[in-house]
Protein backbone atom coordinates (compact mmCIF):
# COMPACT_ATOMS: atom_id res chain seq x y z
CA UNK A 1 0.00 0.00 0.00
CA UNK A 2 1.06 3.57 -0.65
CA UNK A 3 1.55 4.47 2.98
CA UNK A 4 3.78 7.28 4.24
CA UNK A 5 4.29 8.97 7.57
CA UNK A 6 4.05 12.72 7.84
CA UNK A 7 6.47 14.74 9.94
CA UNK A 8 5.33 17.26 12.56
CA UNK A 9 1.73 16.08 12.65
CA UNK A 10 -0.51 15.71 15.67
CA UNK A 11 -2.55 12.77 16.88
CA UNK A 12 -5.99 12.85 15.27
CA UNK A 13 -6.97 9.16 15.55
CA UNK A 14 -7.36 6.73 18.47
CA UNK A 15 -4.42 4.56 19.46
CA UNK A 16 -5.71 1.35 17.89
CA UNK A 17 -6.60 3.05 14.58
CA UNK A 18 -2.99 2.48 13.51
CA UNK A 19 -3.94 -1.12 12.76
CA UNK A 20 -6.40 0.03 10.11
CA UNK A 21 -4.60 3.02 8.61
CA UNK A 22 -2.13 1.09 6.48
CA UNK A 23 -4.58 0.84 3.59
CA UNK A 24 -5.26 4.58 3.38
CA UNK A 25 -3.67 7.05 0.99
CA UNK A 26 -1.08 9.43 2.43
CA UNK A 27 -3.51 12.33 2.30
CA UNK A 28 -5.92 10.40 4.51
CA UNK A 29 -3.45 9.60 7.25
CA UNK A 30 -2.99 12.19 9.98
CA UNK A 31 -1.74 11.29 13.39
CA UNK A 32 1.66 9.60 13.27
CA UNK A 33 5.02 11.21 13.78
CA UNK A 34 8.55 10.33 12.80
CA UNK A 35 9.79 7.21 11.06
CA UNK A 36 11.61 5.99 14.17
CA UNK A 37 8.27 5.20 15.83
CA UNK A 38 6.35 4.03 12.80
CA UNK A 39 4.17 1.56 14.68
CA UNK A 40 3.62 3.56 17.86
CA UNK A 41 1.09 6.43 17.92
CA UNK A 42 1.98 9.65 19.66
CA UNK A 43 -0.65 9.05 22.32
CA UNK A 44 1.36 6.04 23.52
CA UNK A 45 4.86 7.49 23.43
CA UNK A 46 4.03 10.94 24.75
CA UNK A 47 1.44 11.75 27.40
CA UNK A 48 -0.96 14.59 26.72
CA UNK A 49 -0.46 17.77 28.68
CA UNK A 50 -3.34 18.47 30.99
CA UNK A 51 -4.06 21.43 33.18
CA UNK A 52 -5.35 21.13 36.69
CA UNK A 53 -9.00 22.06 37.11
CA UNK A 54 -9.94 23.76 40.33
CA UNK A 55 -12.89 22.12 42.13
CA UNK A 56 -16.08 24.15 42.53
CA UNK A 57 -16.29 26.30 45.61
CA UNK A 58 -19.15 24.19 46.95
CA UNK A 59 -17.01 21.05 46.99
CA UNK A 60 -14.57 20.66 49.83
CA UNK A 61 -12.77 17.62 48.44
CA UNK A 62 -12.88 15.12 45.63
CA UNK A 63 -12.60 11.45 46.48
CA UNK A 64 -9.60 9.84 44.74
CA UNK A 65 -10.51 7.17 42.23
CA UNK A 66 -8.56 4.12 41.17
CA UNK A 67 -7.70 3.69 37.52
CA UNK A 68 -10.10 1.57 35.54
CA UNK A 69 -9.11 -1.63 33.76
CA UNK A 70 -9.74 0.02 30.39
CA UNK A 71 -7.37 2.87 31.18
CA UNK A 72 -4.67 0.41 32.20
CA UNK A 73 -5.04 -1.62 29.03
CA UNK A 74 -4.91 1.49 26.86
CA UNK A 75 -1.71 2.57 28.67
CA UNK A 76 0.00 -0.50 27.20
CA UNK A 77 1.33 0.03 23.68
CA UNK A 78 -0.74 -1.64 20.91
CA UNK A 79 2.03 -4.02 19.86
CA UNK A 80 2.48 -5.43 23.36
CA UNK A 81 -1.25 -5.49 24.08
CA UNK A 82 -2.22 -7.42 20.95
CA UNK A 83 0.72 -9.83 21.20
CA UNK A 84 0.10 -10.67 24.87
CA UNK A 85 -3.61 -11.00 24.12
CA UNK A 86 -2.89 -13.62 21.46
CA UNK A 87 -0.44 -15.46 23.73
CA UNK A 88 -2.97 -15.42 26.58
CA UNK A 89 -5.67 -16.98 24.42
CA UNK A 90 -3.31 -19.68 23.13
CA UNK A 91 -1.91 -20.47 26.60
CA UNK A 92 -5.29 -20.80 28.32
CA UNK A 93 -6.85 -22.77 25.46
CA UNK A 94 -3.98 -25.24 25.00
CA UNK A 95 -2.80 -25.72 28.60
CA UNK A 96 -6.14 -26.24 30.33
CA UNK A 97 -6.59 -30.00 30.88
CA UNK A 98 -9.72 -31.66 29.50
CA UNK A 99 -10.49 -33.01 32.97
CA UNK A 100 -10.54 -29.50 34.51
CA UNK A 101 -13.96 -28.27 35.62
CA UNK A 102 -13.32 -25.04 37.55
CA UNK A 103 -11.24 -22.03 36.48
CA UNK A 104 -10.52 -18.92 38.55
CA UNK A 105 -9.14 -15.66 37.17
CA UNK A 106 -6.93 -13.41 39.27
CA UNK A 107 -8.02 -9.82 38.70
CA UNK A 108 -10.95 -10.08 36.30
CA UNK A 109 -11.09 -6.85 34.26
CA UNK A 110 -13.37 -7.83 31.37
CA UNK A 111 -15.02 -10.83 29.76
CA UNK A 112 -12.33 -11.91 27.31
CA UNK A 113 -10.99 -14.80 29.43
CA UNK A 114 -14.41 -16.48 29.33
CA UNK A 115 -13.89 -16.98 25.60
CA UNK A 116 -10.32 -18.26 26.12
CA UNK A 117 -11.13 -21.22 28.38
CA UNK A 118 -12.14 -24.50 26.69
CA UNK A 119 -15.79 -25.49 26.61
CA UNK A 120 -15.00 -28.33 29.01
CA UNK A 121 -14.73 -25.79 31.85
CA UNK A 122 -18.00 -25.72 33.80
CA UNK A 123 -17.41 -22.82 36.22
CA UNK A 124 -15.49 -19.57 35.78
CA UNK A 125 -14.86 -17.80 39.11
CA UNK A 126 -14.03 -14.10 39.22
CA UNK A 127 -11.87 -11.95 41.48
CA UNK A 128 -11.14 -8.24 41.23
CA UNK A 129 -8.21 -5.82 41.13
CA UNK A 130 -10.03 -3.64 43.66
CA UNK A 131 -8.99 -3.94 47.34
CA UNK A 132 -12.67 -3.84 48.33
CA UNK A 133 -13.42 -6.86 46.17
CA UNK A 134 -16.25 -5.04 44.41
CA UNK A 135 -16.89 -6.17 40.84
CA UNK A 136 -17.68 -3.20 38.61
CA UNK A 137 -21.03 -3.13 36.77
CA UNK A 138 -19.22 -2.71 33.45
CA UNK A 139 -17.17 -5.86 34.07
CA UNK A 140 -20.29 -7.79 35.07
CA UNK A 141 -21.96 -6.75 31.84
CA UNK A 142 -18.99 -7.85 29.72
CA UNK A 143 -18.80 -11.18 31.56
CA UNK A 144 -22.50 -11.77 30.99
CA UNK A 145 -22.16 -10.97 27.28
CA UNK A 146 -19.21 -13.35 26.92
CA UNK A 147 -21.07 -16.08 28.79
CA UNK A 148 -24.12 -15.68 26.55
CA UNK A 149 -22.00 -15.86 23.38
CA UNK A 150 -19.82 -18.74 24.53
CA UNK A 151 -22.64 -20.79 26.10
CA UNK A 152 -20.21 -23.00 27.98
CA UNK A 153 -18.73 -22.08 31.37
CA UNK A 154 -21.06 -20.60 33.97
CA UNK A 155 -19.63 -17.37 35.40
CA UNK A 156 -19.62 -17.30 39.21
CA UNK A 157 -19.53 -13.66 40.35
CA UNK A 158 -17.51 -13.34 43.57
CA UNK A 159 -16.90 -10.15 45.53
CA UNK A 160 -13.30 -10.98 46.43
CA UNK A 161 -9.98 -9.22 45.74
CA UNK A 162 -7.32 -11.23 43.95
CA UNK A 163 -5.01 -11.15 46.99
CA UNK A 164 -7.74 -12.41 49.35
CA UNK A 165 -9.87 -15.12 47.73
CA UNK A 166 -12.13 -15.33 50.76
CA UNK A 167 -15.10 -16.80 48.86
CA UNK A 168 -13.08 -19.68 47.38
CA UNK A 169 -12.35 -22.84 49.38
CA UNK A 170 -8.96 -24.51 49.72
CA UNK A 171 -8.05 -26.95 46.94
CA UNK A 172 -11.29 -26.38 45.02
CA UNK A 173 -10.02 -25.01 41.68
CA UNK A 174 -8.47 -26.88 38.76
CA UNK A 175 -6.93 -23.91 36.89
CA UNK A 176 -5.99 -20.37 37.98
CA UNK A 177 -5.17 -17.76 35.34
CA UNK A 178 -3.54 -14.33 35.67
CA UNK A 179 -3.59 -12.28 32.46
CA UNK A 180 -2.06 -8.78 32.45
CA UNK A 181 -3.55 -8.02 35.87
CA UNK A 182 -0.50 -7.37 38.06
CA UNK A 183 -0.05 -3.75 36.96
CA UNK A 184 -3.68 -2.98 37.83
CA UNK A 185 -3.25 -4.65 41.22
CA UNK A 186 -0.13 -2.63 41.92
CA UNK A 187 -1.86 0.61 40.91
CA UNK A 188 -4.58 -0.12 43.48
CA UNK A 189 -2.12 -0.95 46.26
CA UNK A 190 -2.61 -4.72 46.21
CA UNK A 191 0.09 -7.33 46.89
CA UNK A 192 0.76 -9.36 43.71
CA UNK A 193 2.83 -11.90 45.66
CA UNK A 194 -0.14 -12.63 47.87
CA UNK A 195 -2.23 -13.35 44.77
CA UNK A 196 0.26 -16.11 43.85
CA UNK A 197 0.03 -17.56 47.36
CA UNK A 198 -3.76 -17.42 47.23
CA UNK A 199 -3.70 -19.17 43.85
CA UNK A 200 -1.58 -21.93 45.39
CA UNK A 201 -4.04 -22.26 48.26
CA UNK A 202 -7.19 -22.67 46.15
CA UNK A 203 -5.60 -24.95 43.54
CA UNK A 204 -6.15 -28.68 43.82
CA UNK A 205 -3.03 -30.89 43.95
CA UNK A 206 -2.01 -31.25 40.32
CA UNK A 207 -3.87 -28.03 39.42
CA UNK A 208 -2.34 -25.46 37.09
CA UNK A 209 -1.40 -21.79 37.37
CA UNK A 210 -1.21 -20.04 33.98
CA UNK A 211 0.06 -16.49 33.69
CA UNK A 212 0.96 -13.77 31.17
CA UNK A 213 2.41 -10.89 33.17
CA UNK A 214 5.29 -8.38 33.10
CA UNK A 215 8.66 -10.11 33.34
CA UNK A 216 9.60 -8.11 36.42
CA UNK A 217 7.50 -6.24 38.97
CA UNK A 218 9.46 -3.76 41.09
CA UNK A 219 12.67 -5.53 40.13
CA UNK A 220 11.47 -9.04 41.05
CA UNK A 221 10.75 -11.80 38.55
CA UNK A 222 7.20 -13.17 38.54
CA UNK A 223 8.36 -16.59 37.35
CA UNK A 224 11.17 -16.83 39.91
CA UNK A 225 8.75 -16.07 42.73
CA UNK A 226 6.34 -18.79 41.60
CA UNK A 227 9.23 -21.23 41.30
CA UNK A 228 10.58 -20.52 44.78
CA UNK A 229 7.26 -20.68 46.66
CA UNK A 230 7.57 -23.07 49.61
CA UNK A 231 4.80 -24.76 51.59
CA UNK A 232 5.69 -25.47 55.23
CA UNK A 233 3.50 -25.25 58.32
CA UNK A 234 6.52 -24.68 60.55
CA UNK A 235 9.41 -22.44 59.47
CA UNK A 236 11.79 -24.31 61.78
CA UNK A 237 11.67 -27.16 59.25
CA UNK A 238 13.68 -25.03 56.83
CA UNK A 239 16.54 -24.74 59.33
CA UNK A 240 17.11 -28.51 59.21
CA UNK A 241 17.25 -28.68 55.42
CA UNK A 242 20.85 -29.19 54.27
CA UNK A 243 20.65 -29.48 50.48
CA UNK A 244 18.53 -28.35 47.54
CA UNK A 245 17.22 -31.86 46.93
CA UNK A 246 15.62 -31.89 50.37
CA UNK A 247 14.23 -28.38 49.83
CA UNK A 248 12.51 -29.44 46.60
CA UNK A 249 10.20 -31.67 48.62
CA UNK A 250 8.53 -28.57 50.07
CA UNK A 251 8.07 -26.58 46.86
CA UNK A 252 4.43 -25.74 46.12
CA UNK A 253 4.90 -26.11 42.35
CA UNK A 254 7.05 -29.03 41.25
CA UNK A 255 6.75 -28.61 37.48
CA UNK A 256 7.28 -25.08 36.14
CA UNK A 257 8.04 -23.59 32.76
CA UNK A 258 8.03 -19.98 31.58
CA UNK A 259 9.57 -17.94 28.79
CA UNK A 260 9.78 -14.35 27.58
CA UNK A 261 7.29 -13.24 24.93
CA UNK A 262 9.05 -12.03 21.79
CA UNK A 263 8.16 -9.24 19.34
CA UNK A 264 6.86 -6.85 22.01
CA UNK A 265 8.00 -3.49 23.36
CA UNK A 266 7.30 -4.04 27.06
CA UNK A 267 8.87 -7.24 28.50
CA UNK A 268 6.28 -9.87 29.42
CA UNK A 269 6.51 -13.54 30.31
CA UNK A 270 4.13 -16.46 29.80
CA UNK A 271 4.28 -19.42 32.13
CA UNK A 272 2.75 -22.61 33.47
CA UNK A 273 3.14 -24.13 36.95
CA UNK A 274 1.66 -27.42 38.21
CA UNK A 275 0.93 -27.74 41.92
CA UNK A 276 2.72 -30.54 43.72
CA UNK A 277 0.64 -33.52 44.84
CA UNK A 278 2.24 -33.16 48.31
CA UNK A 279 1.46 -29.45 48.69
CA UNK A 280 -0.56 -28.67 51.80
CA UNK A 281 0.62 -31.74 53.71
CA UNK A 282 2.22 -31.50 57.14
CA UNK A 283 5.69 -32.91 57.83
CA UNK A 284 4.15 -35.98 59.49
CA UNK A 285 1.84 -36.57 56.52
CA UNK A 286 4.76 -36.27 54.11
CA UNK A 287 6.82 -38.78 56.12
CA UNK A 288 3.88 -41.18 56.33
CA UNK A 289 3.33 -40.94 52.58
CA UNK A 290 7.04 -41.52 51.91
CA UNK A 291 7.01 -44.68 54.07
CA UNK A 292 3.90 -45.96 52.32
CA UNK A 293 5.44 -45.36 48.91
CA UNK A 294 8.59 -47.20 50.02
CA UNK A 295 6.53 -50.17 51.21
CA UNK A 296 4.59 -50.24 47.94
CA UNK A 297 7.87 -50.16 46.03
CA UNK A 298 9.27 -53.11 48.02
CA UNK A 299 6.03 -55.04 47.53
CA UNK A 300 6.22 -54.44 43.78
CA UNK A 301 9.82 -55.67 43.69
CA UNK A 302 8.87 -58.81 45.65
CA UNK A 303 5.95 -59.52 43.33
CA UNK A 304 8.16 -59.16 40.26
CA UNK A 305 10.75 -61.53 41.79
CA UNK A 306 8.03 -64.10 42.57
CA UNK A 307 6.68 -63.91 39.00
CA UNK A 308 10.18 -64.37 37.58
CA UNK A 309 10.64 -67.46 39.79
CA UNK A 310 7.36 -68.98 38.58
CA UNK A 311 8.34 -68.45 34.94
CA UNK A 312 11.76 -69.98 35.57
CA UNK A 313 10.22 -73.10 37.12
CA UNK A 314 7.86 -73.48 34.17
CA UNK A 315 10.75 -73.26 31.72
CA UNK A 316 12.71 -75.91 33.65
CA UNK A 317 9.69 -78.22 33.79
CA UNK A 318 9.05 -77.80 30.08
CA UNK A 319 12.71 -78.45 29.27
CA UNK A 320 12.73 -81.59 31.44
CA UNK A 321 9.61 -82.91 29.70
CA UNK A 322 11.16 -82.43 26.28
CA UNK A 323 14.30 -84.29 27.39
CA UNK A 324 12.26 -87.28 28.61
CA UNK A 325 10.30 -87.45 25.35
CA UNK A 326 13.54 -87.42 23.39
CA UNK A 327 14.99 -90.25 25.51
CA UNK A 328 11.92 -92.40 24.94
UniProtKB/TrEMBL annotation:
GO terms for molecular function: S-adenosylmethionine-dependent methyltransferase activity. It comes from the Eukaryota. InterPro entries: Methyltransf_11, SAM-dependent_MTases_sf, UbiE/COQ5_MeTrFase_CS. It comes from Entomoneis paludosa. The lineage of its organism: Eukaryota, Sar, Stramenopiles, Ochrophyta, Bacillariophyta. Gene3D superfamilies: Vaccinia Virus protein VP39. One of its GO terms (biological process) is methylation. The keyword Methyltransferase applies. This is Methyltransferase type 11 domain-containing protein.
Amino acid sequence: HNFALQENTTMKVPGFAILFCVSLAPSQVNGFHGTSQAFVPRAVTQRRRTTAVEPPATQSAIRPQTRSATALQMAMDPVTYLRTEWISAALVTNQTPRAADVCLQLGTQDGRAVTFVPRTIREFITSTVEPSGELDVRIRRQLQQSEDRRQAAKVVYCEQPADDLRETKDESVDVVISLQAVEAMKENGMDWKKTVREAARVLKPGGRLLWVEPTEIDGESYGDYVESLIDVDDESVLENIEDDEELEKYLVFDDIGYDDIDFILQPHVAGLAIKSMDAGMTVEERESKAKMEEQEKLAEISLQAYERGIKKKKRKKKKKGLAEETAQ
